[in-house]
Amino acid sequence: MPDAPRAYRGLLDRYRRRLPVSDSTPIVNLYEGNTPLLHLENIPRDAGIDAEIWVKFEGLNPTGSFKDRGMTMAVSRALEEGSRAIICASTGNTSASAAAYAARAGMQAFVLIPDGKIAVGKLAQAMMHGATVIKIGGNFDDGMRLVRETAEEAPVTIVNSINPYRLQGQKTVAFEVVEALGRAPDYHCLPVGNAGNISAHWIGYSECCPEERNCITEACNFCGGDCPYAGTPLADSRPVMVGYQARGAAPFVEGHPVEKPDTVATAIRIGNPQSWDLALATARESGGWFDAFDDDAILATQKLLAEREGIFCEPASAVAVSGAIKDLKSGRIAAGSTVVCTLTGHGLKDSDIAIAQSSAPVITVRAERNAVRDAIMGALA
Ligand code: F0G
Fold first, then answer.
1. What is the per-residue burial (b if ≥16 Cβ within 10 Å, else e) of 258-288?
2. Is the CB of 65 under 6 A from ligand 1?
3. pTM over the 0.85 mark
């Protein structure tokens, strides 16, 4: 690799000591991570909310979602273990990410997606990166079952979040939040689908908090020596973790799997989450909870973020902000809190949804100066 000493080279480079990589691990990366933590300026003020709300914009990862954090880890380890092909079921983002990292690694990718129920941008990504797309006449949960069954018979490595390396990669989001804030937030709000990401956040925050690490004492000042925790960002607490779902796909709110999940937020159209126990443990240990929002509320928040903050996330991501606002207004999240919401994916992936619900004026005029001026004067009036 050419020498560029100051260049950021992704998570496995940045957090090498905190991740299951060794000198013999071939690093497959797209310089993922290092995403911005943006302060919401207008929405809290408009809503009369007394809190600092930050959004971790994971849509700015290389393939436009947080999945890249897990995929760099999972694909690097798959390659190290001699695998030639990876497989996943997906509501879209995992397949886009798997396809890109497989391309980078020179591996084959097989992606199972629910026919007609993934955002067109995500499908374009999987196809463009050369994955074999297998459309199934079922939902994500059916795809997950088929992937497990297939992997028993075919030489393919599963890169869904049941692959433990995925959560290891994804835990780094918490490291970055702690580094940016200089502490852990009081609350961390995020969308929950298959429930891997909320669990990964919790692993990451727990590793930042010395009180949760028995082996670390005051004497350890993260010296950069042989200490395995060298370079870990430090926090003296962990956040309350709050998971939000779409009303039609809310197994954690209902307390049981949902047979026919449905929501406009196709990324989280999941009824039988694989990381069920981990997510419940996260909520229990952190003192958190789950809640659900209907599709209209989710789309309204997506639009609010775009119109009032200039941030374009996908519908599934917006539910985290719907939840934070509701819980701050009701007092369930205490006034004065520092709240971080993970915006898991980029809005451009689902342009159909965006255009369908946009109320922005589109004016068609002749290509003449007077016509353009009249249109502008009319809009300003
Ligand atoms: N937000 C987005 C944009 C997602 O794509 C997903 C999951 C989630 C939130 C939920 O995260 O599953 O870890 O609870 N997408 C998966 C996929 C299922 O196939 O792309 P989770």
1. beebebbbbbbbbbbbbbbebbbebbeebeb
2. yes
3. yes
